[in-house]
Amino acid sequence: MDKKRKSIIITVIMAVLLLVLSGWCILKPADEFSDSERRVLAQKPEMTAESIFSTSFMTGFEEYAMDQFPARESFRKLKAFNEFNVFNKKDNNGIYKAEGHLSKIEYPLQYDMLEYAAGKFKYLYDTYMMGKENTVYLSVIPDKNMYLAEPNGFISLDYNELIEYFTEEMDYAKYIDITDTLSLDDYYKTDTHWKQECLVDTAKVLGEGMDADVHSDYDICTLEEPFCGVYTGQYTLPVEPDVISYLTNETLEKCKVTIYDSGMPEESFVYDMEKAHSKDPYEMFLSGTVALMTLENPYGPQDKELIVFRDSFGSSLVPLLAEGYGKITLVDIRYIQSGMLGSFIEFEDQDVLFLYSTSLLNYSMALK
Amino acid sequence: MVFSGIPFLYYFLPAALLLYFAVPKQLKNGALLAASLVFYAWGEPKYVFLMMGTIVMGYVFGILIEKHKGTDGAKLWLVLSVICSAAVLCYFKYADFFIENFNAATGMSIPFLRIALPVGISFYTFQLLSYLIDVYRGDTAAQRNFINLAAYISMFPQLVAGPIVRYSDVRDRLENRAHSFEDIAWGIRRFVIGLSKKVLIANSLAELCDVFRASAEPSVMFYWIYAVTFTLYIYFDFSGYSDMAIGLGRILGFKFMENFNYPYISKSITEFWRRWHISLGSWFRDYVYIPLGGNRRSRPRWFLNIFIVWMLTGFWHGAEWTFVVWGLYFAVILVAEKLFLSKMLDKIGPFSHIYAVFLVTIGFVVFNASDLGQAVSDISYMFGRGDLPVVTAETMYYLKSYLVILAAAVIGATPLPKKIITAIGRNSAGQKIADIAESVFLVAMVLLATAYLVDGSFNPFLYFRF
What we know:
The structure holds 2 protein chains of 2 kinds. Chain A is α/β, with parallel strands linked by helices. Chain A is 34% helix and 18% strand. Chain B has 2 domains: 172 residues, no CATH class; 191 residues, no CATH class. Chain B contains 18 helices and no strands.
């Protein structure tokens, strides 16, 4: 091929590629939400003299251009494929696959975060529980890297160090170890969370630790829709989806769930079937992200109450503690200021359980 | 705006090229200037006025210097223009550095000015100075067309990170340039290679450097991996940008000077500096070192000249002592090579290559340190200070994870890939395959780089801060 002809071919091919992608960028209608990443996508910023001179327009446009790029999901797949199969990287954006599980590297221990979380818990204890007849418990939920990372050559947190840190800092709480009740199979393959149907023994250990009888028999129900957990979209390459199962029995069916997030009590369900068909079906467990809620068991011991400070892992576990209590109050201080709790909860003689995952404790800035 | 960004690749560049090739020949420099101002304003709208003011100043001084050619007036205007340009550069880039050190020396507490550094100010100031000095020397005529001069200084391909293009190198093409498919295709190839170097290699290496800095279990080996990774990163980052700039320049009809020539195959530091950031090295040689007398003076004065040039070279990179020390570090080695080392290096054959790479790597550890304390600390840990373990699980994890990229970077920093491609093209069958494969390769690289950009990977340009 002569040089000129070759140059014309290269020029034409590259010009067409550039113009097609450019035109597609300009003409493509903006998407609002990325299902795979479960996040709102950036929209075109408003162009004003102020936004230009403050450069907020440019920053916003750069985010918009990346978020709204045509065939974005395919490009993300291409990148992930190249990272894993050509560059032989062990993870892509921190997400890795081992033993059929997707997980996110949690590393290293962030001591400032641990300190922050311990400080928040101490504040709660000092403000609401000290001098009262509350009995305080602590349990730490290991993320699945504890069972997945090291055996497969990935780095992970020093879990013993983390647990030791909290047991020392929270000397006002009795520690209940649940790590021996769990294994890799107790977690969803595509999600960070644990499976409720595998938590009966874990709930028993917690119940025994708090001197509450939570033994019960359950029926297992399974959702028909496949469950593509939070890591599916982040991993981008094809993976087998999970299924969500949930445990139920007569007690749970009779439990009364009340949510206080709007300021007015709102009745809800142990299993919110509307959310079971939403973008994040795990939110079906106690309606997902809720700041303050109660679960009342009419068949439970009415003189026994439990207050659980928890993250999303608690949503699937706490129903399994219902048998042992007349009332359980669930508090997620990521969504409510710790200082405001006194207006909603009267701390007297309840059991109080701090139940948090290692992932949250190691990135605890969301605690208020 | 950075070349390796979606807004540049898929919004600015198509629009700028369409405008540029659509307008008639006499309006091309105007179109180039307009595009360059938009490009610059994207990152720093208010500093467009500073750049335009600097260009107006250079335009007026150029004419005044030429008008008084052969008289003391020309020298006066040149000195005045150099002082003005240096003053603008010092104010925006070095003011807080001087204040900090003045306060430290005197115990005073003069408040800092805290001025944001205008992007590319070191590059365009040096281009303007080269123009004015060349006019004074009579090497070139003053540019009477303001648009042409402004298009030269602000030309977006090399505006913010070089190479430092001499006016005399582009003067003819500024006024009269032809465009050909050969030039455009050459420019496309070069741009795509630079984009791939930057997005696929340099950004990954930058991630590894960041991982090292956040390490929970540092080890001696991790310090060495960091040193090697940063040395490779800065080459792929900066040479990738230079490739893109040179490629874009060629598409627009200009031929910019090469900025890198496989610096890591050097067998001495003298050779390294002939291959690394060539446009800056030659600028200092032609406008500082030679006017100071170069090597035509007494030996002490010659060495003093070397120290002055290398201190300025270091200082050009930033208002930090680390850069000054980095420059002086090379001055010491260069003097040592001139005195006795080069003869020894000739005798040790391939070991001279290890010597050069080792010293360059140590130099870049100093270069990338946040301050001199960190530089000393990093280097001492590399040589076993304290009780750091030799290797940790974290070190091994990241070494394994980045091994392919590191290996690709090491090979890519040598002429080996180019030699292989040239060898394939030598026989006709290989040439035919290469002809077809080249287009496929270029498209694949653009799509792959786009995939990395769309996924929002780490994308800094180190040389933007200079």
